[in-house]
Amino acid sequence: MKIRIAGMALFLCIPLVLYLYLAQPLGVLPSLGLGVLIMIGHRFLASPFSARHRPRRCLWCGRSIPIAQVSLALPVQGGKEISYKFCPPSSADCRVRWIGLHRLVLRHKHLIQFGIFIPVLAYLVLETARGAGHPQIPHEVSLALFKGIIAATVVSVSFGYLSHRPEEDNSIPPPAPFPFPLHNLSLLGAGWTLWIFRIVGMGWILQLINRMIRIF
Ligand SMILES: [Zn+2]
Question: ipTM greater than 0.95, yes or no?
Fold first, then answer.
């Protein structure tokens, strides 16, 4: 339980960064600056946490599992492999679900990277220009682009992995490294993280549709 709470606390840095970027409670430039600092610093806490608890936690659901449970060696950047644990196939299909997500993300790697990194980068550049007194487009428009593109990406991933699951549990690891930092997904467990992405993403899409209906 303590591990779950610590994982949640570390995960909360992600909504905190989003709050700083989007609501800008300290003013434009201080909020963006603090958000970027937290985003960069977060990996120095989250990555060791993930590595420390990896042998005893399911990567998909975050449940504590016996250290003797068979692990799956996943390829990581640099040509190495790291072993991750999953719930026993008899009690949950966590490993099958992970392989589905891993396959989907590998197949659509560039589209997903484009759908997350480009809107974040574009938003930070546009908002920094606005904060420095050189607005390029209205804040509402950069906010809508940020939320719209990211929400469409994460909601698609959160459903799309289901159709990439293997027919049955197997121990064949995906062929290439997962192209995003695994420590962020391991804080709550990848499955719970996808649920949060799904709910927040759908909320953002509904918000934008509501706004467009009001405008037109
Ligand atoms: Zn599990």
Answer: yes
